[in-house]
Amino acid sequence: MAWARICASCCRQLVEAVLPTPARVGAEERTPLLDSAPASHFPRPSILRGPGTPHAGICSPDSFISNGLLSGEPEEVVLSVDRSSPHGSGATEASCSTAVLLADLEQDSRQRQGECALPRAAQAGLAPLKPEASRSSSPGPTSCIRARVTAEAGTRDTGSIGPRPESWVPSHESPETPEPRRAQPLSTPEPPSVMLVNGDCPESLKKEEGVTEPPRENGLDEGEPGDETTGQEVIVIQDTGFSVKILAPGIEPFSLQVSPQEMVQEIHQVLMDREDTCHRTCFSLHLDGNMLDHFSELRSVEGLQEGSVLRVVEEPYTVREARIHVRHVRDLLKSLDPSDAFNGVDCNSLSFLSVFTDGDLGDSGKRKKGLEMDPIDCTPPEYILPGSRERPLCPLQPQNRDWKPLQCLKVLTMSGWNPPPGNRKMHGDLMYLFVITAEDRQVSITASTRGFYLNQSTAYHFNPKPASPRFLSHSLVELLNQISPTFKKNFAVLQKKRVQRHPFERIATPFQVYSWTAPQAEHAMDCVRAEDAYTSRLGYEEHIPGQTRDWNEELQTTRELPRKNLPERLLRERAIFKVHSDFTAAATRGAMAVIDGNVMAINPSEETKMQMFIWNNIFFSLGFDVRDHYKDFGGDVAAYVAPTNDLNGVRTYNAVDVEGLYTLGTVVVDYRGYRVTAQSIIPGILERDQEQSVIYGSIDFGKTVVSHPRYLELLERTSRPLKILRHRVLNERDEEVELCSSVECKGIIGNDGRHYILDLLRTFPPDLNFLPVPGEELPEECSRAGFPRAHRHKLCCLRQELVDAFVEHRYLLFMKLAALQLMQQKAKMENPTSLENGGPASESKPEDPLGPEAGSEEEGSGASGLAKVKELAETIASDDGTDPRSREVIRNACKAVGSISSTAFDIRFNPDIFSPGVRFPESCQDEVRDQKQLLKDAAAFLLSCQIPGLVKDCTDHAVLPMDGATLAEVMRQRGINMRYLGKVLDLVLRSPARSQLDHIYKIGIGELITRSAKHIFKTYLQGVELSGLSAAISHFLNCFLSSYPNPVAHLPADELVSKKRNKRRKNRPPGALDNTAWAVMTPQELWKNICQEAKNYFDFDLECDSVDQAVETYGLQKITLLREISLKTGIQILLKEYSFDSRHKPAFTEEDVLNIFPVVKHVNPKASDAFHFFQSGQAKVQQGFLKEGCELINEALNLFNNVYGAMHVEICACLRLLARLHYIMGDYAEALSNQQKAVLMSERVMGIEHPNTIQEYMHLALYCFASSQLSTALSLLYRARYLMLLVFGEDHPEMALLDNNIGLVLHGVMEYDLSLRFLENALAVSIKYHGPKALKVALSHHLVARVYESKAEFRSALQHEKEGYTIYKTQLGEDHEKTKESSEYLKCLTQQAVALQRTMNEIYRNGSSANIPPLKFTAPSMASVLEQLNVINGILFIPLSQKDLENLKAEVARRHQLQEASKNRDKTEEPMATEPETAGAPEDMGTQPQLAKDPSSLTLQG
């Protein structure tokens, strides 16, 4: 079953991960976590459903993904180079220093807790758990799709009884084995031998924060068996699943596999989704005549056992139940209709994979057996071929044939006769429906307590008496089946199709994804949609007791949930994520209502810009400078950026997750040119004045400042991870006030007694490059680059990633300095004569490395740097600190790097330095001076290290951004703000490898142009009233992208423009001006403004005064610019071909603008435990432990599912890695199934043409080819190429890989000419981006030569292979295997060429009587094509001989002993210096290969 593999049971994962086993179990006896139990152990798969039903969350025998891999492994080592890191490109640099996983479960280990080195994850260890505690603490059944916030979560049961099976899918516990299985402990990669701590960490504080020391690797290397096995194992205790029989009216009885942890309600959900029972919503389940309670667990039901019969009993309706029933029927009728996805509602989004796979992947649909060597049509569409200039838009959303839905009814709507009058109410009438059947019959239907029947009313005449025959049916579907034959036929077909779809195509996503294009759709009548629009249905009110939700209470209560052990943490994270995604949806809806003018302001008499709103218990404010609050910081511009800075602050404090400190739920929405901040409301804040509420911080930017001991205590706990310095400032009476945050950060105690912090806009230190301060000189690197530059506001901050990278860079420096001085001292001791000249040298030394050359030393070499540092750290640790000289060394090094402590490395920033209006006491002047210097150094570090590092990574193709969003992501991971984009482009232009950075330059210029255009568009839209919106947007797009020289704006027709507008001033959207200034914009003016904006904001000179010139000069594509501007501003345009280049008519008309969506920024809560598992799994795979890695990643997948539901970006990364592992281990079917899910999820969650989706398509094509689904593989590759052409164009390094893939597959199906077109294009792109002498180019030459050989054009083949041979020879030397292979191939080609020539000569000489020996032409074998595909996609299989394995084993054992020795030494000595919390990689994986239990399956990852 397709679904069976996404979610293994919640409880089971928890118990597996938590419960300790008896200590006697030896390492040999342990079985892996997800072991392939024989089929006999598993009862029949639970809940039998159609092949693609949405919630078959069961674990059938084949459901555990580690099946194939745990049986027999191939005798080979796999070298897998996965260039796409799990969280977008470049995640490796940003990843945490050690993936901390299960804490020691031993009691005593809690005493020696170190600091967990995760910068932004909740740092909580696992408490030991008694076996009997497991049941109560495991969260029990939870929905994998929309996790219920259960009663334990202290919040309401949100939407759990909702009527929509599509959006709520229960997870079914796995069928379990009768006897407990032992599971192998999960272990982490080893932490660095010196733990990373920023500053001295008091023991009590460590305990308070729940930091844990990562356990050593257990069960994986031969350690001391005694201490490794105590309390560290995990045992699985399971309840056995069983099957029950379901008797429903009107259908044959069927059996259903259930698990004791399920609730009765989950069986309801299953029945509401099954094809044959989906039309029932109002029923109860009876066992032996007793009704089962909806919310009881099955194990608590007396007498329920294997083979019990559950009877479905129809219940009487209430108004609520009748409405739920109608809504459910409408959902079933619309289940294949994509309009909700195009309109961006109800968390629906698009997916097109099934169009290209024709349903022949995995288990669903007809799996094509055998080689598809029947003729395949391989001809790609013209626009995909290399060199094509055409970039059509329509193929982006191909028409899915299921989307022309079968019409079951013409109209189903609420009748105008509702609600029933009192006398009819007393007859049981609940409501009336009006239906027009497909046969054009109009009928009125009464919903009564007993069901649905026809009445005698018409549109104009009310007669509630039953018609004859009245067809009373308990279900609306049954009634419609009786009165309309078309309905009966089409509804059955529709349901069949619905259950055949992959569940990932229909599950709701956690956050709404909007599509920037949509086809023209007819607007159909829909009673439920109409009702939702007019009632303020703010989520699921009618299904929640108490109606509107108290968002603040829900958000804070979920944070207060216990988090001592894994089950508690999972429950807590799931509750936080669920409430957060609901809050984001409600806030988005509210913000749109506010801007559309549908919400009354709480201060209606004030000017529109100053109005504030409350809707659905959420507070909304606009991004304007109210009451000159930001006057000194840049006015409205500062007020516009403050909310995003504040959101970043909220994100950071949430990630640190200190108990007792609360932040507000915050969502920032950009819509129609306005910025709206939505926040949850602090209880009691509205009743009192702000002055009396604030007991910490300042409400006037530092003039009056107050502090509070409890706040200082709470914020002190955040100061180390956030690198914030506790400092003193002066208030208006010149008294010293102590703070542990910026002055703007306000502390308010709510009426609920909680300590809230808000206004976190200056959590991070200011960016001095954009903050000119009179009398302050910046370092030389900054002034060389033209800094400081005045920015349009004074709220520019450094990013958290930059602060972390800077501190880590300083730490490396600190270690080098200390070690250097120690070595000098040792040298002095050994050689006393050098004392005199040794003295001054060591004095001058510390200041020296802080010069520019220290910066230029690449800190990106993180891993090797850390390895060196560890040696140095050991050197320092070996001096046990009693030696005064080593103390002196540490003191010097601390002083040199700017540490605030003189005994250990500890760098923190004072966020108030350079804040206008903040004054510091005299006694702190030294500290302030040091802090100023530190800020200057950080600003210089960004310019001298981070930006060059980024350009170097791009040159080496370590990161491969494909569009503006991925470039922005890569910059942000390195802590580079977008305002530095101009500087990055300048550096790219000056780079010696300029041609290899062509793609970066193009993306950067496109991003610069569209961002500048977005800034202009924002103010442009604010002047447009609603009736002119589509005209204004199409006019702007014409000026921006169309070659038509003078587009004219269409003003709304006069009769529609109200004459009395001025009288209605107060209700008008905020800031709207009474003008049509937007209509006079011209293309020349817009492009002039764009160039000006690029200069002012990004300090970059654009050389273009029209779109055509920009396209010409920078090689951009108009379609790409259209996509970028639409995504940035939320525009949705009609899917059609636009003639941008026509000079006779404008490209866009107002009919082409379909919608404008909000652009939403919010905090993304993380599943920290799952993320640690994921990272450990990756580390294991990199070290070569494929099986262990696979288990850890499977476990991570379970935990991600548990927290996020079934759809999430991180689950997508998990599935991709799992698929790759299965592929490497030869389980192609499993790889295909996982990768199919990854593609569907990427389309749904990230967007159908997101660069990540393109990558996923390529991986899926490879696995399809390996599974002999050749035509599918080709159509997937063609789709990927089309998307890449649309998103970027042809000239991208990734295009070389894609074209090599396409060329190889075409070669495999003997389409030689077509194959050559793609392979030769790949060769040209490789030469451009990797240089003519690169190994990739040699491989490309070889691939081309093979095709020429197949065509018997030996001269061309020889020419290409010689080129390749030359490259191998110069790069690798003559003795290298590759060079020899190439040389052999050259010989073979020469022989064939000679043979061919002989034959030709023979023919010329003897004419037709020639005796011709048969010529051997090699048609490529599938195996050889697959081998080449693996090579180009970075998967290399290296056979290892037994001798190699023995050597490897010996080497690993030797290293292990060394490690143990150094560990023991570390324990006996107190390390002097400690590292910052966020270091780079856990260790240099390459230098320490370790071996799995079965060394023959070793994998290394490049």
Topology:
Layout: H1 10-18, H2 67-70, E1 76-80, H3 91-94, H4 133-137, E2 181-183, H5 203-209, H6 225-229, E3 234-236, E4 242-247, E5 254-258, H7 264-273, E6 283-287, E7 290-291, E8 309-314, H8 319-333, H9 339-343, H10 353-357, E9 409-414, H11 422-425, E10 429-437, E11 442-448, E12 451-455, H12 476-483, H13 485-500, E13 517-518, H14 527-534, H15 551-560, H16 566-595, E14 612-615, E15 618-622, H17 635-656, E16 661-662, E17 666-671, E18 674-680, H18 690-693, E19 694-696, H19 709-722, E20 727-730, E21 736-739, E22 746-749, E23 755-758, H20 780-784, H21 800-830, H22 835-844, H23 852-856, H24 862-878, H25 884-897, H26 925-955, H27 964-973, H28 981-990, H29 998-1022, H30 1029-1041, H31 1083-1098, H32 1107-1114, H33 1118-1129, E24 1131-1134, E25 1153-1156, E26 1159-1162, H34 1168-1183, H35 1186-1204, H36 1209-1224, H37 1228-1246, H38 1251-1266, H39 1270-1287, H40 1293-1308, H41 1312-1330, H42 1335-1350, H43 1354-1372, H44 1377-1406, H45 1422-1432, E27 1435-1439, H46 1442-1468, E28 1499-1501
Parallel strand pairs: 1-28, 4-8, 13-24, 16-23
Antiparallel strand pairs: 1-27, 2-3, 4-5, 6-7, 6-8, 9-10, 10-11, 11-12, 14-15, 15-18, 17-18, 17-26, 19-22, 20-21, 22-23, 24-25
Regions with pLDDT < 50 over 5+ consecutive residues? 1-238, 363-373, 537-546, 833-863, 1055-1067, 1467-1502
Strand content: 5-15%
Q: How far is it from the N-terminal to the C-terminal residue, by CA? A: 34 Å
Shape: globular
Q: Give me the count of strands.
A: 28
Query: What is the strand arrangement across the widest sheet?
Result: 5-4-8-6-7
Question: Which structural class is indicated by helix and strand composition?
Answer: alpha+beta
Tell me the number of helical segments per DSSP (H or I, 4 or more residues long). 46
The value of Rg in angstroms is: 34 Å
What kind of sheet is the major sheet? Answer: 5 strands, mixed
What would the average pLDDT be, to the nearest integer? 78
Percent range of helical residues: 40-55%
User: How is the quaternary structure best described?
Assistant: single chain
